[in-house]
Amino acid sequence: MMTRRSPHRDALRLLYIFVKGAEPLDAPHPSGAVAILRGEAKLHAYDFWIRNPDYLAEELLDLFVATNNQRFLDEVGDIFASEEPDIRRIPMIRYRFGAYERLDDTLALLKSRDLVTIVGTKTADRVAEWDFLVMRRAYDLTTAIEAEFPVLGWYRRRAELVHEVAAGRSGSALKKRQYEQADYAETELGGVIPPIADRVQARLVALMRNI
Questions:
Q1: Residue 4 pLDDT more than 70?
Q2: Is 103 a member of any domain?
């Protein structure tokens, strides 16, 4: 069983990615934006980890091994205890530059509400990168959503965790990191990136035995 899709559910997930993943702007922007998420690659990398909890869990186990911080191990335990790799997984295909899905309709929904504005960085005669300007009202909306529907705080907590895993790296660096997973890298172009839940859960059990 996987998460049921809807345009508004997808928009909510991306909204939290923007709110938690964007960098504050140093100065006010003419559009009224207060933060920016740089690059479509970064957006897709964040989205991949939220949509594939087993791949995120693998990153958290790596962080546990590197830091011996019990919190990372606990987060992975919670992911599997809640059966997230089954019930929250939203598959993504492998495209030329990694996990990908057309987000035009979802982004249009956010843009129509004046929550996000998309701007292009040009080099010569083409757009080299799309950046996403995040409005103050996007932050206000997430606060209002959680006040009325506390259960949706899951999206905030998950976006915060993904942001911590990303550790300030660029979109290309995050894609490179994701490609280090053989299951991800060996997926044929246009194919669905397969789950790795069984392997990650076995690794979790082994690490817990050694504590």
A1: no
A2: yes
Handedness of CA 72, 184, 194, 107 (dihedral sign): positive
Q: Please report where in the chains the tokens 């504590």 appear, as a residue.
A: 211
Q: What is the identity of the amino acid at 140?
A: D
Total tally of structural domains belonging to the chain: 1
Nearest 5°: phi and psi at 109?
A: -65, -45
Q: What pLDDT does 181 receive?
A: 83
Condensed to tens digits (0 to 9), the pLDDT of residues 146-155 reads: 999 999 999 9
Would you say residue 172 lies in a domain? yes
- Between strands 98-100 and 93-95, the pairing is antiparallel
Average pLDDT over residues 85-94: 90
Q: Is 198 left (phi over 0), alpha (psi -120 to 50) or beta?
A: alpha
Is 1 domain-assigned? no
Residues spanned by the domain of 106: 7-209
Tokens of 31: 């559009």
**Res. 119: pLDDT tops 70:** yes
SS3 115: coil
Judged by average pLDDT, the poorest of 29-33, 50-54, 121-125, 159-163 is: 121-125
* CA–CA separation, 95 and 120 (whole Å): 21
Q: With b meaning 16 or more CB within 10 Å and e meaning fewer, what string describes 30-65? A: eeebbbbbbbbbbbbbbbbbbbbbbbbbbbbbebbe
- Identify whether the C-beta of residue 58 lies closer than 8 Å to the C-beta of residue 162: no
